[in-house]
Amino acid sequence: MHGPKLSHIDDPGPLRIPPVATMGALAVGVLGLLVFLIAAFTGGEEMRQNAWSGFFVSYLFFFFLAMGAAAFLAIQYVTGAKWVVVLKRLPEALTSFLYRGGFVFPLFALLGTGYIYSWAAPDATYPYPGTVKDSWLSPGIHVGKVIVYVVPLVLLSYFLVAASLRADKKTDPGLRARQLRTAIIFLVCFGFLFSLFSWDVVMSVEPKWFSTMFGVYCFSGAFLSAIAAMMLLTFFLRRHTDLVQGRHVYDMGTYVMGFATFMAYIGFSQFMLIWYANLEDETMFYIKRFEGNWVVLAVALSALKFIIPFVVLMPPRMRTNLYAQAFCCGGILLGQLIDIYWIVIPAYSETLVLPSLVNVATFLGVAGIFGWSTLSFFSSHSYLPVGDPDLLSSVNGDYLHA
Amino acid sequence: MARIHVPAVLGFYDDADDLMHVAEKARVQEGFKNLDAYSPYPIHGMEEALGLQRSWTSTAARFGLFAGAFLGFSFQSWSSAIDWPVNIGGKPFISWPAWVPITFETGVLLAGFCNLFALLIACGMYPKPKTMILSKRITNDRFVMVIPVTGEEEEKRAIAFLRRHKTLKVKIADRIDKKRERVIFRAVPVEGETTAS
């Protein structure tokens, strides 16, 4: 920490990731998705419904994670944060899923609209006939909505990552300002579009229910899972370079604990207001999700996403401890998956159902594509952002007493 | 500015990095004990460089947190279930989810107060603030390294050590005038001479 200050950092080049790992992830992805396609298009009615809902949950988990990482990256640009620069490739790698195939999933899910949403079934009885909601929740408009929400977000996150990668190749004095502008535009669009995406794509599985906090609820889950994934990757990156130091790990670990608390704050605020007002249309969402053994998942996700990380990471030395962080961040990722499952699946079943084998294969399929995009990002780009003018400041710790 | 160990050799710097560097060397290489430092603003990593123990203020804050949360929760239970039970929307009298925000707030409030007063006591600012000042420029642009010494031999060693490390100025805090709450300085012996007794 008080070692000699570096004045130049060489380009370390990409990580050496064995091609068998990258290709293996891709193979798992293709096989898993193949199982899903067979089940979704050749199975019986019940199997199709199960396959599509499993696909919905799986892609939401990874899509949200990558979106959270893109938002993290944009926030670092807008705030001019320097501590994070040495770790900047981690959110970029997670974001790369969005434009390396991730954007296909929400668009592909449009084919299963009739199975995922009760309002889109051919014989659907609309929750409020003759209202605006009646026409807003219709399959035709849904296609347009998803395209309008997903395409700009994916394009902007691509620009965000591409600008940073371009800086490695050649220095460009105007780059900083352009990155900042992209990040600002991204965050403004993200605020609107991600909320609308949450409402129209996720919340409408319960067409009668509504919560104005649902957008920020989804955001907090997405952001927390992205930070947990980045924390795990920080330890991975630290094995390759000693430029990632204890204080970077500590700051990231504090981020994990902070946003676990944020998640609890948002989740509890949404729950308590609905519980207190006790209006029929609002409360039935939670009643459905607390009865028929679904409460097991509700307790599990609040333990995994808030209580365990909050208690375990309370002492400062635990925030840099590999085992404590692996336990907490693994738990947070599992909790986020349980959270999405707990939001979506009770719409189709009154009692607790566990994922079927097809669902597991589908999840592994999307996970394979996600793993492939992350690994191939690391094996095709330098793992330090050598083109970033703040890299030296991040490594030397100049920002600490500036 | 309390608890200045006297006599002590003081080294003045105009850069935080120099101070940190010297503190680490004085502790690790030279083995000086009970080191202290003064600066206009908090310096990251200074506790490690000085080898300071973890302060007890966080324990006080934790005590305040649990006490506040417990008191807040108990007061709400008492007021709405025992002293004046009111049926609100058919909910049980002790319906805890509604009390989480207030329990949290009282917990944070008491933790904050305990932390504040623990800090003031630990710094010797409470109940009576002390105003012993080593140099007026400490609140502006000077960084001071304090090496408490016992005996002439250690004092000479400390002075020689500080002179080797681009110290702007070396001073000796000799004793404290308790009545006027002032630090009395003593002239630094010129190199090569022995300290005047």
In short:
With 402 residues, chain A is mainly alpha-helical. Chain A has helices at 19-42, 45-79, 89-102, 104-108, 113-116, 132-136, 139-169, 175-202, 214-238, 246-277, 280-290, 295-312, 322-344, 357-380, 391-396. Chain A has one domain (22-380).
Write the layout of secondary structure elements.
The complex is a heterodimer of chains A (402) and B (197).
Chain A: H1 19-42, H2 45-79, H3 89-102, H4 104-108, H5 113-116, H6 132-136, H7 139-169, H8 175-202, H9 214-238, H10 246-277, H11 280-290, H12 295-312, H13 322-344, H14 357-380, H15 391-396
Helix pairs in contact in A: 1-2, 1-14, 2-3, 2-8, 2-9, 2-13, 2-14, 3-7, 3-14, 7-8, 8-9, 9-10, 9-13, 10-12, 12-13
Chain B: E1 8-13, H1 16-28, E2 36-38, H2 46-50, H3 57-83, H4 100-122, E3 143-148, H5 151-164, E4 169-177, E5 182-186
Short key terms for the protein model shown above:
heterodimer; A: 402 residues; mainly alpha; globular; B: 197 residues; alpha+beta; Alpha-Beta Plaits; five-stranded antiparallel sheet; 5 helices; elongated
Describe the fold and architecture.
- Chain A is mainly α and 402 residues long.
- The two termini of chain A are 16 Å apart.
- In chain B, strands 2-3-1-4-5 form a 5-stranded antiparallel β-sheet, covered by helices on one side.
- In chain B, helix 3 packs antiparallel against helix 4.
- Chain B is elongated, with a radius of gyration of 25 Å.
- The two termini of chain B are 29 Å apart.
- The model of chain B has no long low-confidence stretch (mean pLDDT 86).
- The chains are: A mainly alpha (402), B alpha+beta (197).
